[in-house]
Amino acid sequence: xxxxxxxxxxxAGIRRATELLRKGAxxxxxxxxxxxxxxxxxxxxxxxxxxxxxxxxxLNPLIVHVPGLEEARAIAEFDDAAEKLAEAFxxxxxxxVLPLKPDSGISALATAGLKTVAIRVPAHPxxxxxxxxxxxxxxxxxxxxxxxxxxxCADHVMDNxxxxxxxxxxxxxxxxxxxxxxxxxTPKPTxxxxxxxxxxxxxxxxxxxxxxxxxxxxxxxxxxxHYAPDNMLRLNxxxxxxxxxxxxxxxVDGDLNLSSKGDLAEAAANxxxxxxxxxxxxxxxxxxxxxEEGLGVAINDRLRRAAALKF
Length: 311
Ligand code: TXA
Ligand code: MG
Hints:
Elements: E1 5-7, H1 11-23, E2 27-29, E3 36-40, H2 44-54, E4 63-65, H3 69-73, H4 80-89, E5 94-99, E6 116-120, H5 125-134, E7 138-139, H6 154-160, E8 167-169, E9 181-184, E10 190-193, H7 199-206, E11 211-212, E12 233-234, E13 245-248, E14 256-257, H8 264-279, E15 285-287, H9 296-307
Parallel strand pairs: 1-8, 2-8, 4-6, 5-9, 10-11, 12-15, 13-14, 13-15
Antiparallel strand pairs: 2-3, 3-7, 4-7, 5-6, 9-10
Helix pairs in contact: 1-5
The protein binds threonylcarbamoyladenylate and magnesium ion.
The site of threonylcarbamoyladenylate (TXA) has 30 residues, from strand 5, strand 6 and strand 10.
């Protein structure tokens, strides 16, 4: 393992993380969804290093993190729907894809040269403190090697990202556990990725159905095989077959249970941690059925991609 500094969730830890980020180094930090691999979004060479650290295909754009709506307005154009969504769900697990302002200062590498930018205001107190202290937008993909499972604790980052990361700000387990919901508002409100804010809540607020993703933007979280464990994954299993470990949910109990009381928020928070735990041991993994509603949509999306055959 490379020499990654583990920083305490203290004022001193935040100061050190801030200093490293301002120098252009990469610092993994906790958000309420998953850990992000942070670097100044305004610096080409820092952003390039993020792609290198993740071995991520260059053309896939990154989410830009800012502490609040005011900082977001300096980067992106907000239409009425975007205003409403930001007001209702920020800070929180929602990313908005909006037209990029020409003088935003964001590295074209971070947006992959698109005319839009994905922007997020995380609610996690450490992410908030860090973003406010840094005073510049921070690009932050999930802090995992490209195509692998997302990290929901500092150890996941330290065990899997071995190069080019200076430090991890250790905030313990991420409370939401699946990535942010990604919505574009123009030309029509469109769901780009299911996530921490259920689609139903967004549709209720905007009083309209969200369009489904057209598939035009080749986003890594949208590729069929993603979040891939090393072992085989079988979905919708009511029992474990010979040699399988079962990840349970509700009444379908297993070696681990995402939520024995059938609570989808608890299941989302446990999802990647339990998959990481089971995947550390060789052998196939089966997963109990998860209802396709609320946060279950995001959980099933991650599970389907994790189970998809890799090519
Ligand atoms: O919860 C999250 O969103 C976490 C935490 C760290 O904030 N971040 C995260 O980032 O999941 P990442 O890079 O793993 O996923 C970002 C997704 C990708 O699928 C990317 O292609 C998409 O956002 N994206 C970024 N910019 C976009 C744009 N302009 N248009 C469409 N999709 C975009
Ligand atoms: Mg990711």
